[in-house]
Amino acid sequence: MRDEDLQRAAMMLHHRKKYLAQGGPIAAPIVMSSAYHLPQVQAGGHFYTRAGNPTWDAVEAQLTLLEDAPALAFPSGMAAISAALMACVQGGGRVVLPSDGYYVTRVFADNFLRPLGVSVTYLPAKDYALANFAGAGVVYIETPTNPVLDMIDIPAVAARARALGAKVIVDNTTMTPLLQRPLDLGADLVVAADTKAPAGHGDVLFGHVAGRDAALMTRVSDWRRMSGAIPSPFDAWLVHRGLETLEVRLTRMCANAGAIAQRLQGHKALVSLRYLGLPEDPDYALAARQMAGFGFLVGMTFADETAAERFLSRCPMIQQATSFGGVHTSGERRARWGDSVPLGFVRLSVGIEPLGPLWAAIAAALID
User: Fold this and answer.
1) What average pLDDT does the segment 94-115 reach?
2) What are phi and psi of 335, to 5 degrees?
3) Domain 3-243 is in which class?
C-alpha cells in the first residue's frame, strides 16, 4: 500500500477522538433508537432513523476518510449499486454495463431499468478501451471484474465517458479504497459491497456509495431515505469494527494470495491461472499502474467441473461459499451461477490463515 493509504488507515482508527468527552466510550456505541428527542424541528440533530443514525455516522466517517469523499452507508452492496444507478439514470437514457462483471447488476438492469425505458448496453471489460460512449448517460465500470479479474483503465475510460456527458460509476468491491481509488482516477461515484473485505468476517451485509459531486450525492441520499434502503445500527457497528482491522487483514490476504499464485504457476492440475500480481498476467502492467496492490483473488481453471469440485471439497482450509474477502479462504466454481467462465473455473478468495498450513492444504487437495 502507498504511504497515503496507510495514513488514511491510521487516521480511521482514531476518527472518533475529536468527539469524545471525558468518560466517553472509545468504541462506537450501537444506537438502536428509531426516533430522537425533537422538541424543535429546525434545531438540528437526528430525527428519524430512516434519515440518519449515530452508528451510521461513525461508519460513514470511516468510509469518508478512506475514500477522501463523502460516503453513504447501505444495507448491502446491491443496495448501494442500485442507489447509484437510480441517482444517475434517466428514462430514455442509455447505460453501459460490463457483461462479465457481477451478474446481479445485470439482472437489476434487465428487470428494473429496461422497463423504465432505459437502454442497456453490455460490453466485455476488454471492449471498454475502444467503446463508443456517445449518447450514454451512465458508464458503469467494474475493475477488476468479478470473477474473471479483467482490468479496465479507469482514467482513460472515465475521461472519454465524461467528455461525452456520461456519469461514471465504478464498482470497487474487489479492491477496497486501500488498494484502488476510483474517485482519484476520474469516477463520479464509487460503489462497493462492504460485506466483503471491509467487514471481513462473513457476518454482515453492507455497502456504500461515495462521491465528490454534492448534488449527485444528495440524489443518492434522497434515494436511500425515500426507498428505505437503510442499514441496521447493529450491522453498521459490525462494519465499523471490521474496518478497524482492514489494513492488517488486506496486507496478510494479499501476501498470501501472491505467494499461493506463484506456487500454482504451471501446476499440472490447472489449465490456466489468473492473478494480477503475476508478471505474466495480461493485465499486470495496468494493475501495477492503477492499484496499490494486487488483491486477494485468484482465478483457477481446472480441466472440468468434476476436477474443480473435487479440489474444493477436498481442501479443509477452503470454505465453499458464494462470497469473498473474508478472513477464511473461500472458493467457488462460478459457472454454477451462470457466469461466462469455463465449467472448471474456481474463484479463490485467499484469507488470513498462516501461509504454511494454508498452502499445504491446497497442495494436498490438488494431488490426484
Assistant:
1) 96
2) -65, -20
3) alpha beta
Radius of gyration of the chain (CA): 21
> What does the block give as the cell for 87?
441517482
Q: Where are the domains of the chain?
A: 3-243, 246-366
Cα-based distances in Å from 201 to 91, 171, 192: 39, 21, 16
Residues 6+ apart with CB under 8 A from 78: 104, 105, 108, 193, 207
Q: Is the peptide bond before 144 cis (omega within 30 degrees of 0)?
A: yes
- Tens digit of pLDDT for each residue in 215-266? 999 999 999 999 999 999 999 999 999 999 999 999 999 999 999 999 999 9
Query: Over pLDDT 70: what percentage of the chain?
Result: 100
Bridging pattern class, strands 119-123 and 94-98: parallel
Grid look-up 467441473 returns 305
Q: What is the pLDDT of residues 155-200, one digit of tens each?
A: 999 999 999 999 999 999 999 999 999 999 999 999 999 999 999 9
Q: DSSP assignment of 280-306, as one string? A: TSTTHHHHHHH-SS--SEEEEE-SSHH
State the burial class of residue 111 (Cβ atoms within 10 Å of its Cβ: 0-12, 13-18, 19+).
exposed
Kindly report the backbone phi and psi dihedral angles of residue 24, in degrees, each rounded to the nearest multiple of 5, phi listed first.
Answer: -75, 155
Residues 341, 195, 329: CA angle, nearest 5 degrees: 60
Q: What is the rounded distance in angstroms from the CA atom of residue 270 to the CA atom of residue 266?
A: 7
Residue 245's pLDDT is what?
Answer: 97
Contact 299, 339 (CB under 8 A): no
Same CATH topology for 3-243 and 246-366?
Answer: no
What is the number of other CB atoms lying within 10 angstroms of the CB of residue 198? 29
The CATH class of the 246-366 domain is alpha beta
pLDDT digits (tens, 9 = 90+) for 30-56: 999 999 988 888 788 898 999 999 999
Using pLDDT thresholds of 50, 70 and 90, give the confidence band for residue 338.
Answer: confident
Per DSSP, helices labelled H in 73-192 are 77-88, 103-108, 154-163
